[in-house]
Input
Amino acid sequence: MGKKTLHCLLLLLCLSGLVPCSAGLVFWTAVVDIKYTTSNNQTVEKYCECGVFGRNSPLEKAFGIVTLPKGDPKGCGPDPVYNRNASSPPWIALVKRGNCTFSEKINAAKRQGAAGVLVYNLDGSGNSTSHMAHSDAPGIVAVMIGNFQGMEIVKLVKNGTEVQMLISLGSPHGPWMDSYWLYFLSIAFFVVTAAAITYFVFISANRLYNLGRHRRAERRLKNEAKKAIKRLQVRTLRKEDEETTNDSNMCAVCIESYRPGEVVTVLTCDHIFHKTCIEPWLLERRTCPMCKCDILKALGVEEEPKDNIPTNSPPDVTVVTVTGGEPMYEVPLTDPGSFDPERHQHLYDNRAFEGESEPSRG
Output
């Protein structure tokens, strides 16, 4: 098993353990709606989101007439606890917390057919509630409300008022739903968004910078290639030349044989190509198509500063160097002992850049 698979399994195990924990921390509020008629025939309706569903309670609605237990308000006595039976209209048991477990209170009402159980908190607790657990009494709506709300309903029922109650689902609550957690999540969202935008801007700026730098480098190399192409030897082929007499000699760029009258360019590696074929190639690649010889390095189009040239060098000598290196060899511009008028006519006579060529000397 690979490391990545093992890490995924460990992560799933951690998440599977966190899900029940997080579900246990979530609780749902309950909306308690009561309706009754006063002695002067006025209908009063009150509601508040003041209840909390039990941990084992179904999150459903419950409707019925509020009913108090006989004798003990905490509903912990033996059956029958309520003056109700299965044939009675829907009713909701209202009991006080204490004396016995929540499950015992809820089961006592459930056995007599209650539609739901409303537990109100102990005296002195105000309107505080708790998330009650009743694992032994599932399958019935069970809600806790505060002591003040519960005592208000108890007084109405004890005074003979029939109180109708509707319990409905409120809203979920949990640690991450608290206002502080909302602030934290909002701030974290903006921080992550700002970091993502900053990263995107940085990456985009870096790419644009590198692209501009690459374009400038390509432009500089093309300018150097133009200078190097001007210095290459250009010849016009004649019938008696070896290139035209042998059909095996052909231009490696266009794969066509040479013909008399065609203009060819001789690279520094002595390979010959059609002038119109090789110049676009050299502008883009700057190397010989056959041997990959770099014309910029071979011709040394970037001359050394004058301070680095020896003062005793002959006036008619150009020092040609590989860029960034030491002087490799010297090429005389004029050699009176080997003067060839035909060769001299075409040496460095490149018409590819006629607009940039220097005026001919008189």
